[in-house]
Write a sequence for this structure.
């Protein structure tokens, strides 16, 4: 199919090979017909990159290679919730050890054994921290914000992450966040995370 054919606009999520090849999609991106979304996936320029499309992109990449009730976490979950800069790695919680996938994956996978994942047919230990967002299991905004602040407790924060944290905080209730961080204060990295939380909340306009 020729890359100038209009049917591309009929597809919300454009996957290389269906209906266009990767080189065709790259050419179409240069002309503004499509826009990069995640990994090697694209979207029509006329299609908004909303949470539903972002969730579909994560599922497209991860679902074929992950088993059980896996859960998007970290920057991947944050991107699904609030958008912004697309992650360069796909972070997911899994309930058991996974061998590196035999299939080629569009993004490097970072897999963690966390309490928000569970084997098929079971419930995650921290099920209250799991949200089903457009078919994708991902951590709630509160848990995602906590994970990001704890993971960056050593001060390794970049500008994109700062923007993401700020936008996530706007989707939460400050009092509930503070209570959550107080309950979980003994977790590693939580002291610095609580300090950063206060700085974030001072600059946040809550939208929920």
């Amino acid at each position: 199919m020729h890359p100038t054919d209009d049917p591309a606009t009929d597809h919300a999520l454009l996957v290389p090979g269906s209906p266009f090849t990767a080189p065709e999609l790259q050419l179409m991106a240069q002309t503004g017909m499509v826009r990069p979304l995640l990994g090697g996936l694209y979207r029509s320029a006329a299609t908004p990159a909303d949470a539903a499309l972002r969730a579909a992109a994560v599922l497209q990449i991860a679902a074929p290679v992950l088993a059980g009730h896996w859960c998007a976490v970290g920057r991947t979950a944050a991107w699904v919730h609030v958008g912004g800069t697309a992650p360069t790695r796909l972070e997911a919680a899994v309930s058991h050890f996974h061998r590196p996938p035999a299939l080629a994956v569009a993004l490097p996978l970072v897999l963690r054994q966390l309490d928000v994942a569970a084997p098929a047919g079971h419930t995650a230990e921290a099920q209250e921290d799991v949200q089903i967002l457009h078919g994708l299991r991902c951590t709630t905004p509160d848990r995602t914000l906590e994970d990001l602040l704890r993971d960056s407790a050593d001060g390794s924060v970049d500008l994109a992450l700062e923007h993401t944290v700020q936008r996530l905080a706007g989707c939460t209730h400050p009092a509930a966040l503070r209570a959550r961080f107080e309950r979980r204060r003994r977790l590693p990295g939580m002291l610095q995370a609580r300090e950063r939380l206060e700085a974030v909340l001072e600059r946040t306009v809550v939208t929920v």
